[in-house]
């Protein structure tokens, strides 16, 4: 019988401590500067590449950790350092997961290394699914991919929005409509290789939080990519579309679309990011409450403050357990029969928003200033209930999974 434990093994503890050291010594001290600059922190990404934290090898090792805890542990530590900088470091991973989830062995081997570059010449990648009129409603996507059989090329046209690293990426993964009749089942993912004509950056967004992470529109005008850039290949796509048409005719079963496969795999990882930000704010608040004296005693000496900290810590630990469960299930090949991935993302993201708000409150006036990091952490935490499926969408997924009903 396998041993049951919540403890990380020695190798994991070593990696966690190493990541924590980088987050504490390199990321956290730079957080305020890059938040104010609202620019991609290239020097920090380069530093991460030099020590091996920004590399395909490192993420592959964590991704294939048989316990499933490698990725959540990595996310929690890096986002504990700072969410904006950490997203600049791990944002490439969403595009890489898009290729891992839908690509062939050859595509994985060709494109993922180009997403990261190397320590002397670091690169980033972008995953482009959202559009101005297709956020939560992925089926409303309009970006079109049309096959030019004579040249064995796909021609992409459309506008993507909210793309992390959009326009500055070496490799873009673009989700597009190949069969408009099939709604979200008629989507496919494409690699747009470096320097492909027709792809340009549109508006770069000025944001409320995670301001060090670049978010922009990506405009695709007659972008031609070779047939080999269709993730999974043409044969697999044709089979999938034929099955979807068959099921649509029979009025039956849902077929997973390309973007959804990516999001399902990445939701617990987003939950772990939220746990990292929540833990960071909680620790600052705990320290502050121990040292700030009012009415002749530390403010933690009041139940009104101490109980808030007790709740904060309890919720953070509960969120981590949901994230670890979902990550373990995904790695063990256990299907999310109760939408456990969505549960973990929903709960952890809501906890991060709540806990960071409480941290601001515990720091009083100081919490409201940019002299203390909880103000930034509170702004940053707002993203977790929005990207990779809003909280409302997570609730829809959970409710539909539990009830089997098409809840709206
Ligand atoms: C900083 C940032 C980075 C991002 N990075 C990426 C990226 O790299 N790649 C990418 O493809 N996308 C990315 N996104 C996009 C993100 O995934 C979308 O913003 C998100 O899916 C929500 O879509 P929307 O903004 O269009 O909101 P909408 O879908 O318009 O939703 C607006 C509100 O309506 C609610 N709502 C919508 N439908 C329902 C419903 N049926 N029931 C109940 N409530 C509903 C939503 O929950 C939300 O509160 C990013 C977004 C941000 C802000």
Automatic annotation (TrEMBL):
Keywords: FAD, Flavoprotein, Oxidoreductase. PROSITE patterns: ACYL_COA_DH_2 (PS00073). Its cofactor is FAD. Residues 10-115 form the Acyl-CoA dehydrogenase/oxidase N-terminal domain. It comes from the Bacteria. Residues 126-223 form the Acyl-CoA oxidase/dehydrogenase middle domain. Residues 258-402 form the Acyl-CoA dehydrogenase/oxidase C-terminal domain. Pfam families: Acyl-CoA_dh_1 (PF00441), Acyl-CoA_dh_M (PF02770), Acyl-CoA_dh_N (PF02771). The keyword Cytoplasm does not apply. SUPFAM superfamilies: Acyl-CoA dehydrogenase C-terminal domain-like (SSF47203), Acyl-CoA dehydrogenase NM domain-like (SSF56645). Belongs to the acyl-CoA dehydrogenase family. This is Acyl-CoA dehydrogenase family protein. It comes from Streptomyces lavendulocolor. The lineage of its organism: Bacteria, Bacillati, Actinomycetota, Actinomycetes, Kitasatosporales.
